[in-house]
Amino acid sequence: MRFDTIAENNKSGSLDWTIPKEMDCEDKLVCYVDKQVLHPGGVISLRASATEDLVAGLRIFRMGWYSGAGARLIQSASGLRIPAITTWNKLSKPLPKDELCLEWPEVISISIGDDWCEGLYIARLELVDGKATMAPFWLTSPQEVTGLTVVFSPINIQARNWWGGYSATQVINGRSEKRRDLYHPIGIKEINLNRPMYNSRGGDALRWDYPLIRFLERHDIPITYSSDIDITNSRIIPKSVSHLVTTGPMRYWTKEFESSLSDFIQSGGNYVHLGSEAGQHIVSLDSGIVALHGDEIGERLENPLTNSRPSGSKPKPPWSSMQVKLDGLDSFEVQGLIGSSWDRARDGSKVVALGYGRHKFLRKRIAESSTNSIGLGTVFNSAVSNWTWALSAYRRQGNIKVNENLQKFTLSLLGIDPNLL
Length: 421
Prior knowledge:
Distance between the termini: 24 Å
Number of helices: 6
Shape: globular
Order of helices and strands: HEEEEEEEEEHEHEHEEHEEEEEEEEEEEH
Largest sheet: 9 strands, mixed
Helix content: 10-25%
Structural class: mainly beta
């Protein structure tokens, strides 16, 4: 293992990484990190734009537990000049599609130090009045992953990102394309990985991965980190990995990611998806552009690895409870777990948790967490995108509360003694 996440989390954290209410820049200042998935020895290229020429400061944080602080300050800079170029806000019409792929000017370039630990990072641009905006990026060493490995998914985060007026399924202040042969509408057919997030707080980058990272690093559990982009490019998951973990509504997979994951499981690896929708839409990735529809790619709904399909969705709380039933153990209920989106298991899977979520006003649909064996390995699909929110409290999480029983069950899924808690 290149870095020790346990030693990293023993360092002093920073409490001032968050953006307080009404202190976000909104469309006044936006930014992104070029390429987003970076490796040790690489360079961070921060690109930004504003409604007028501005001067800003920069602080870079690594996200983790850090005795509850939640992040550690890694590097800072001041006097960055931000040019006025492209801007957009949620009240505007969608940008012309050719403007979604512009390469903005680089406002600073920073070499990644030898002491930077892998994980989830944010670049926080700050104005003199205290207002700020965040851009996420991920630092990974894909060839050195081992044991328990968390896989980030910039592809899915950007597919859900609607900055500029488009996401994979939405058109802001416009109409998405609906087809009878598709479960989800079409917002746009290609997305660029290099674009700002839809809000100043990093979009969905912290939403599902971060609670899991906080939970694992809090309890001194060794972790290594990779990403769906790393696996797509390398087309392999090293045999040193025992448990590979993904989170949230990870709907979009590349063929290369799925093939590598299948080989990993067949050879005895354990895949644990603490989310929903995994691999229910195949995409392609080429030079930072994700194609969502076309020949040999597109929506398929049923995933042969998780053996699940979509069941329901409810973006806003209150959300429904889920009952976890384990062989030889007392069952327990987790409040608010069935929300955002959820799956149902197909025939042949072993259901270990279930409940009914309110999909529409008078309609409920089943959610089923399940396990199945493939070759020498195993697959667990939590089937609910809210799962990690019951592991560690962060931001507004509706009516979900941290649940110690679910924490212990999750540890057992990851091959860790649940008595660690």
